[in-house]
Amino acid sequence: MIYLRKDRTLERIDKDCDKVTELAGFTHQLSSKTTNFKDIIGYYKNCKEAIPCGLTDCHKQHKKGFVIATSEGEVTNLGHVCGTKLTGIAFDSLAKQIERDVTEYEWRETLRDATSNALSWKKRCGDLLAAATPYNRTISQLKKPGKLPEIITQAISKIARNATGEIRQDQRKTDDEINAEREMNPGHPVSPYRSQVIGHLAGYSAWTDVSQLREILAIKVPDTLKRLTDANPDILDRKALKALIKAIGEIDTELNRAAGILDQCKSLVQPENLLQFLPLLKGDGLSTKLFRKICRDLPHTSA
Fold first, then answer.
1. Tell me, what's the pLDDT at 160?
2. How far is CA 29 from CA 33, 58, 200, in A?
3. 282 to each of 38, 85, 121, 151, 202, how far by Cα in Å?
4. Are 19 and 1 in contact (CB under 8 A)?
5. Residue 199, CB-side half-sphere exposure with 13 Å CA sphere
6. What is the structure's pLDDT at 224?
7. CA dist 281 to 121, 153, 170, Å?
């Protein structure tokens, strides 16, 4: 990609870097001893193939560099090192300025391109929010004290913290198992219980992540989209431009993250998934009956 200065503005030429050799006055053989540097008039980067430096005493191949003009009317390309050798510290300042200008140019172009995606982003965000709202409500209700048997609420919270998905229950060891452990560890206390995996909870991360859905879909992404549609790429200052470009670059990531959390929510609240906790109630008839009813009455599931 080539960028050239014209009337104090940048112009992008969508050609590979070797096309700089087609510029008027271009030479491959510029002498660093006899030339009089005038100005940096262009910048190129992301070259498919490296091109040689235009100074006679260098010709080093590189894929990023500067286009310079001389007082004699000649034009060539060179890298930062040769430019500094040619003109001293002044080149460094000019180089940084054109690189900064190119970055801003690309940000403004990115902003213009992003505007065309605003409607599709808005629709996807709205669709996800509509789908997520009932699950957010359902899981928030399940997390309220007293809604589920306390032992089940504690178990789900522990599973979410440990991020294993394992549903565990303490089961009593047999006398033979206890005696065998005592023989293997004489003098050490032996627990009469062992932790046994009795199931695997799907969608366990939704227990803690569900709260992020509103932040992403009702606040963060809509705010970015409003800033995008209100923005004028030609007048935004560098600070505001940089911040908006960063936010726009995160939209797809945030929407994908929300979609992933929603999938976890759907898995979590399936009745057959939650009913795996029934053994923890240890045959308590009333608690079992109430828990079965809660699972059966869960909205927006396949129950």
1. 94
2. 12, 10, 72
3. 87, 82, 49, 11, 22
4. no
5. 18
6. 97
7. 45, 12, 12
The pTM (predicted TM-score) of the whole model is 0.81
Q: How much is the pLDDT for 187?
A: 82
d(CA 131, CA 142): 18
Q: Measured between alpha carbons, how far is 161 from 208 in angstroms, rounded to an integer?
A: 9
DSSP state of 139: H
Residue 241 CB partners (closer than 8 Å, separation 6+): 104, 107, 108, 111, 233
End-to-end CA distance of the chain: 57
- Cβ-count burial of 276 within 10 angstroms (0-12 exposed, 13-18 middle, 19+ buried)? middle
- Reduced to 3 states (helix: H, G, I; strand: E, B; else coil), residue 242 is helix
Q: Residue 277 has which token pair?
A: 């906790």
Please list, in sequence order, all residues whose beta carbon lies within 8 angstroms of the beta carbon of residue 243, skipping any fewer than 6 positions away. Answer: none
Helix (H, G, I), strand (E, B) or coil at 125: helix
What pLDDT sits at residue 184? 86
**Residue type (1 letter), 120:** S
Q: Which of 114, 96, 97, 101 is nearest to 245 (CA)?
A: 114
Q: Which residues pair with 195 in a beta bridge?
A: 170
Which residues of the chain, if any, have pLDDT below 50? Answer: 301-303
Q: How many CB atoms lie within 10 A of CB 256?
A: 12
Helices 89-115 and 80-87: crossing angle, nearest 10°?
140
Distance CA 96, CA 283 (A): 74
